[in-house]
Design a protein that fits this description.
281 residues, alpha+beta, Fructose-1,6-Bisphosphatase, Chain A, domain 1, D-Maltodextrin-Binding Protein, domain 2, 2 domains, seven-stranded mixed beta sheet, 14 strands, 33% helix, Inositol_monophosphatase-like, Inositol_monophosphatase_CS, metal-binding, hydrolase
Length: 281
């Protein structure tokens, strides 16, 4: 049974697979990309590179070999065939992969990018790996087993009373006018919003207590699955605008937030709620 996978030392096997994919496909191309190796997917800000594609292929092969019978939902595979998303609601264990989270940073030679892998079953997150190879950071989380960064336990802690909350929000280049308006309410005394970089690294910063919260307006599972489990296992919390847990299968009330503690989640959601939402609540 695949449940034994998580108690058989396989966490370290997955970590090694992610490191090998980075060493083979990502880091040799960091700051070495040729123009023809960078392609726009959905506009000038949404980029994909040969590193994204090759790393996803590498991880797909290695992860399914580690867990026979498992499926893979990867960002690039879904872009090519949206029906791949259906595996998230299937009976097989599924790997959720973002081969290069923060491709724009990667393209520009900025080390602030990550490789994200999560293992889920029937919509429940079981384990996750967040690897920033250019920063030498590897965070691993297991449901009920806590979170570690480079082998050391991490805790999100709580914002200091009265502290201005640092909040990473969906980047303006990737939001609609309506989404910009919904996030604009966070420009209020006591909150300091800024555009996010790599979503995976923003989640890691929440888990480490270096960032107080996030507020995101999109729900691609590969961007959020690894980080949401990491934050939860570090002692943090998250919720959608409806106050529900985020569903990796989609259909969430947006925006949603992840934060260092439940009190901060409630505060961010109270700001994001419209007058109608408040009345309904």
């Amino acid at each position: 049974m695949f449940e034994q996978f998580l108690v058989s030392g396989a966490l370290s096997d997955v970590e090694e697979a992610v490191r090998k994919a980075a060493a083979a496909e990502v880091m040799p191309r960091f700051r070495q990309l040729a123009d023809h190796e960078i392609v726009e997917k959905n506009g000038p800000h949404d980029l994909v590179t040969i590193a994204d594609r090759q790393a996803e292929e590498h991880l797909t092969a290695s992860l399914t070999a580690l867990l026979p019978g498992s499926a893979v939902v990867g960002e690039e595979a879904v872009h090519a065939d949206p029906s791949v998303l259906g595996a998230l609601g299937g009976d097989a264990p599924v790997w959720i992969v973002d081969p290069v989270d923060g491709t724009r940073q990667f393209v520009h030679g900025d080390p602030g990018f990550a490789m994200l892998v999560a293992l889920a079953h029937r919509g429940e997150l079981l384990a996750s790996w967040t690897y920033a190879p250019a920063l030498d950071l590897m965070a691993v989380a297991r449901r009920g087993g806590g979170a570690v960064l480079n082998g050391e336990p991490i805790r999100s802690g709580h914002p200091e009373p009265g502290k201005v909350l640092d909040v990473a929000i969906s980047h303006y280049d990737f939001t609609t006018d309506a989404e910009k308006r919904s996030l604009s309410v966070l420009r209020t005394p006591g909150v300091a919003p800024r555009p996010c970089g790599s979503a995976g690294l923003e989640y890691l910063n929440v888990a480490r207590g270096l960032l107080d919260a996030t507020a995101f307006t999109w729900e691609n599972a590969w961007d959020h699955a690894a980080g949401l489990l990491l934050v939860a296992e570090a002692g943090g919390a998250s919720a959608t605008l409806a106050g529900d847990p985020f569903r990796i299968t989609g259909g969430n009330a947006l925006p949603f937030t992840a934060a260092r503690d439940a009190a901060t989640v409630r505060h961010i959601l109270s700001l994001l709620a419209t007058p109608a939402d408040r009345a309904a609540g």
